[in-house]
Amino acid sequence: MRRAGLNRGAVLRVRCERWPIAGAFTISRGSKTEAEVVVAELTDGAFTGRGECTPYPRYGETAPAVAATIAGFADDIARGLDRAALQSALPAGAARNALDCAFIDLESKRTSRPAHELLGTAPPRPRLTAYTISFGPIEQMAKAAAAAAGRPLLKIKLGGPGDPERIAAIRSAAPAAELIVDANEGWRPDNLAANLAACAAAGVTLIEQPLPAADDAALAAIARTVPICADESVHDRATLSALVGKYDAVNVKLDKAGGLTEALALAAEAHKLGFDLMVGCMVATSLAIAPALLVAAYARVVDLDAPLLLARDRPNGLRYEGSIVHPASRALWG
Which residues fall within 8 angstroms of residue 57, CB to CB, at 6 or more apart? Predict the structure, then answer.
């Protein structure tokens, strides 16, 4: 697909990067000590636009494969493939996200207009973000929660045997914090009721993806007092209709949606269907989080703490004051 547009003559560069995590980041399906990201750059000689994605093995993605997919569009981009054409040239996923955000950043720099003006969205503003407590033994998670107890909103990774005891211990360790839970598909229909009850008893305000995306029918039938948010079950707008009656909210992530363009459209459609919105992220640098702050303007829950989990961030990274994340500088993105 070759269309003349604002990106005429842009040169594409792609690279894989590894960013060490401060300690480890652990969920029910595994642990990692570094964030492996892919960066796409579009350069016209005068301006450069950047986008970052985090390939996710859960969706069959690897950094080398995603980088190769992006690189395969170099000739089309040089001939004029634009952001509108990109939406149908690539499916939702990490590769399209990196390119979509790079297109937006390049256009922003070329026109000297901030990204929110180009996209017709509300300007980004400082937002309270959740802070993640990784999955692990009860004592370890309680200790981590106690250390972070001064943060207003904690996201607790669950998804294994002993979760009722975990959430009770964490509530004791952080009595004043609002708690949200992410089971990462780690519960099953036979323990769903007990885990939901434990979360309700601990005053949890939102539970992400308790059941596997392919086996979440039980959510339509079970009574609950804590709202349920879809994560692995929602990607782009095409996946929304199947969630009605099973979920109360959806977690919009740019890597799943395939970029900021689709993420904003997904957020608008989700609102029309009556879903609350959460905006989330993969473990990545500030370059990946900056575009998501435009979606955060429409979200009830913001989970954009990834740079806080890294041992170091890239230059001109986002500014965090405690759990308040501030909009990006133009030097970073948009």
Answer: none
Tokens encoding 38: 């892919």
| Phi, psi torsion values for 75, nearest 5 degrees | -65, -40
Q: Output helix, strand, coil percentages for the chain, rounded to the nearest 5.
A: 40, 20, 40
What letter would DSSP give residue 122? P
pLDDT at position 7 over 60: no
Nearest to 281 by CA among 172, 84, 132: 132
Q: Shortest CA distance to 285 belongs to which of 12, 24, 25, 39?
A: 39
Contacts of 223 (CB under 8 A, 6+ apart): none
**Cα distance between residue 191 and residue 174, in whole Å:** 25
**Angle between the 94-111 and 286-296 helix axes, to the nearest 10 degrees?**
80
Q: Which domains does the chain have, with CATH numbers?
A: 11-112 (3.30.390.10), 127-325 (3.20.20.120)
Q: What global pTM score does this model have?
A: 0.95
CA 242 – CA 247 distance, rounded (Å): 10
* pLDDT at residue number 8: 60
Residue numbers annotated as active site: 157, 253
At 63, list the tokens.
């950094």
Q: CA distances (Å), 331 to each of 69, 98, 127, 297, in order?
A: 27, 17, 20, 21
Q: Which of 34, 78, 80, 71 is nearest to 54 (CA)?
A: 34
Element (H, E) at 101: helix 94-111
What proportion of the chain, given as a percentage, has pLDDT over 70? 97
Q: Quickly count: other Cβ atoms within 10 Å of residue 194's Cβ.
A: 12
CA distances, 110 to each of 52, 107, 248, 290 (Å): 19, 5, 40, 18
The 3-state DSSP class for residue 151 equals coil
- pLDDT average, residue stretch 282-301: 98
| CB contact at 8 A, 101 and 273 | no
Can you count the helices (H) and strands (E) in the chain?
Answer: 12, 14
